[in-house]
Structures are given as C-alpha cells and as structure tokens.
Amino acid sequence: MTLGEKIRHLRTVEGNLRGLERALTQAEVVELVRRELRKKISQSYLSQIESGARPHLTQATRQLLARFFKVHPGFLLDDIPGFQTGLGSALRIEDAKIDSLLYAAAENFPDDPEFGRTLQAIADYSDTRKSLLLLGEILKVPGLADHLYDVLKTGPSAPARA
Known about the structure:
The chain is mainly α and 162 residues long. It has one domain (3-126). The protein has helices at 3-17, 26-37, 43-51, 59-69, 87-107, 113-124, 128-140, 144-154. Helix 1 packs across helix 5 and helix 5 packs antiparallel against helix 6. The longest helix has 21 residues, at 87-107. The radius of gyration is 19 Å and the shape is elongated. The chain starts with a helix and ends in an 8-residue tail after the last helix.
C-alpha cells in the first residue's frame, strides 16, 4: 500500500469514526488539524502526498498526521512492493482500523494513564488483531487472566491474590 493510499484510507476511517459515514475531505482534514492540533498543513500538500507527487513526508508532517489519525508514525510509509498482498493486505487494513480506535480510546482515559499506555501498546504491536485474539483466548480459561496479571505485575515470587 502506498503512502497516498494509506492517507485516503485513514480519511475514510476517521470520517466513519466521527459519525460521518464517509471519508473526510482533504479540506476537512486541514481544518480539523488546525482546530484540534493547532498546527497547519495545506490542502495542496495533502493532495500531493495522496497523488504520489510527493512520495515522502517530512518528519514533522509524518508526526502531525500520525497524531491526527492516531496511528504509529511508521505506518505512514510506503509498503515494500508486493509486501503481504491478498488477505494479508486486508488484515493490515483491519489492523489499521483497530489501531486507530485504540489510539483514540487511549486519549479518552487521561485519569488512567496505565490503561491508556496499555491501549497504545496493543496498537503499537505489529499484529494488533493477533494480540486481541490472544487476549480473548486467555479470558476463556477460568482464572488464567488473574494468574497472568499477578505474575506479570508482581513477579513470580510474590504471593498470589486471594
């Protein structure tokens, strides 16, 4: 997937997350970045990125767009040609959607920074879908989640919770 395709996809995800049931326009992205992040990006620059006329982002622009779309800055790079085509691409797109939701959710818990960091850690993991499926399997086994939590948070030599 090219950088331009990723930006177009993220505009769609963001528009849907905001309840618009459509992609945000480039102009809407520019205005929301200005209003919400108090930073500037021009619509023509965004258009050049999406069209491929500007194949690379500056570090500042990559950070800005990653923050706005709530994705890891590394996501905003072209994929290596032929990298994980077919179902793998579909799953990567789903991962990007999940990551966007997790980054957004993390910001909604300012009073619980540990929980926010955990949501970000899941989003930062290379296979978000797999990490959430693993969590689902752990929760199916009675007592396993509590045991793992105790071991990982307090260490194997600490007494277990009652």
